[in-house]
Amino acid sequence: MPQIGEIGRNKNYMKSMWMACPDCGHEHWVRLYKGKPQSVGRCRPCSTRVNRRVMPNRYGSNNGCWRGGRIKDNTNGYVYIKVLPGDFFMPMADHRRYIPEHRLIMAKHLNRCLLAWEIVHHKNGVRDDNRLENLELLPSQSKHIPSIKWQREINKRDKKIAKLEARIKELEVEKNAS
After folding, report:
1. CA 104, CA 48: separation in Å to the nearest integer?
2. How many domains does the chain have?
3. Regarding beta strands 79-82 and 70-72, do their DSSP bridges make them parallel or antiparallel, or are they unpaired?
4. 55 and 74 part of one domain
5. Residue 39 lies in a domain
6. Higher pLDDT, 59 or 4
7. Which of 25, 70, 83, 144 could hold 119 in an S-S bridge, CB 3.0 to 4.6 Å?
8. How many whole angstroms separate alpha carbon 64 and alpha carbon 112?
9. Nearest 5°: CA angle at 161, between 126 and 148?
C-alpha cells in the first residue's frame, strides 16, 4: 500500500500522488498537474457533497445549461419534457422525470394519464411534430404496427409515382424535340 504523499502512477498510468480525503480520510490517487495535485484531494462522495452545499442553485432552472426542461433525443427524434415531482402526469415519467412530449400532449387532451400499453402515433411520421391534429391514440402496439407498414407502403408508392412522372416528362420533351 502506498504512503500518503508518495508519487507514482494511478491505474490509468498517469502521474499521481497518494492522498487522503481531508473530510473522511479515504485514501486514493490524485492526478498531478505541473507537479501539484489537481484538486484538494477529496474523494468523490465528499466532493459531490461539498459541491452541492457550496453551489446548491446550479440544478434545474438555475443551471446555465437549462433549456426549459425540453430536450430532443437525436437517436430517435422524440422530444422530452421534464416534469416536477408534484405534477399530475408524474406517473408517466421515466427515472429522470422526463415524459415524451407526444404522450404528454395526448394525456393533457384526455385529462388523464396514459396507460403503459397505449400508443400515441404520429400520423405524418415526423416524431417531433407534436400537434394534436397529428397525433392518434391507439389501444395497443398490435394496432400500431399495421399503420406503420401501410404508411411505408404508401411512401414507397409515392416515390415510384414521382419517378414515373419525371420519366414521362423526359420522354415528352424528347418527343417534342424530334
Report:
1. 33
2. 2
3. antiparallel
4. no
5. yes
6. 4
7. 144
8. 33
9. 35
Q: Which three cell numbers stand for residue 152?
A: 411505408
Q: Judge whether 176 lies within some domain.
A: no
Highest mean pLDDT among 3-7, 55-59, 139-143, 164-168: 164-168
* Contact indicator for 17, 32 with CB cutoff of 8 Å: yes
Residue 149 grid coordinates: 407498414
Residue 16 dihedral angles phi and psi, to the nearest 5°? -145, 165
Given a cut of 90, whether residue 150 has pLDDT beyond it is no
| Residues 12-68: tens digit of each pLDDT | 778 888 888 888 888 888 888 888 887 777 888 888 777 766 666 666 777 777 778
**Does this model's pTM top 0.90?**
no
What is the span of the domain harbouring residue 47?
Answer: 7-59
Q: Is residue 129 part of a domain?
A: no
Judgement on whether residues 16 and 50 belong to the same structural domain of the protein:
yes
Closest CA to 109 of 70, 137, 143: 137
Q: Is there a domain that residue 28 lies in?
A: yes
Do 12 and 50 fall into the same domain? Answer: yes
